[in-house]
């Protein structure tokens, strides 16, 4: 099983980034796919979730209206489009796949929002 994130980097406040997560080794469409983030000194928090088969999306209140999660079941990828970024969005972002007792994590990608 592999989850490989990409797309992180340094961006100015108000800017945009698109994170991607390439999955392999499991039946992607069965899994709930989520993005989490962890800022220095803080607990990991759920940012956005896409239900299996992409039927439902949920977002943390802090990112609603700015972030959009999307998935491509044929390509086994999940993306997070992040707009209107704020300094408080700075964190390591992790891709997560969950189904029944199975729970997989990527290695994380750093997002830094700073002028």
Molecular structure report:
- The protein has 115 residues and is mainly beta.
- It contains no helices and eleven strands.
- Helices cover 0% and strands 54% of the residues.
- Strands 2, 4, 5, 6, 9, 10 and 11 form a seven-stranded mixed sheet that branches. The protein has a four-stranded antiparallel sheet with strand order 1-3-8-7, with no helix packed on it.
- The N and C termini lie far apart (37 Å).
Keywords:
115 residues, 11 strands, mainly beta, 0% helix, globular, 7-stranded mixed sheet, 4-stranded antiparallel sheet
Structural class: mainly beta
Radius of gyration, whole Å: 13 Å
Q: What average pLDDT do the residues reach?
A: 96
Distance between the termini: 37 Å
Largest sheet: 7 strands, mixed
Number of strands: 11
Q: Beta fraction of the residues?
A: over 45%
Q: Number of DSSP helices?
A: 0
Helix content: under 10%
* Low-confidence region ranges: none
Order of secondary-structure elements: EEEEEEEEEEE
**Shape estimate:** globular
Question: What is shown here, in short?
Answer:
The protein has strands at 2-6, 9-11, 17-24, 32-38, 45-50, 57-59, 67-72, 77-82, 91-99, 102-105, 109-113.
What is the secondary structure topology, with strand pairs?
Elements: E1 2-6, E2 9-11, E3 17-24, E4 32-38, E5 45-50, E6 57-59, E7 67-72, E8 77-82, E9 91-99, E10 102-105, E11 109-113
Parallel strand pairs: 2-11
Antiparallel strand pairs: 1-3, 3-8, 4-5, 4-9, 5-6, 7-8, 9-10, 9-11
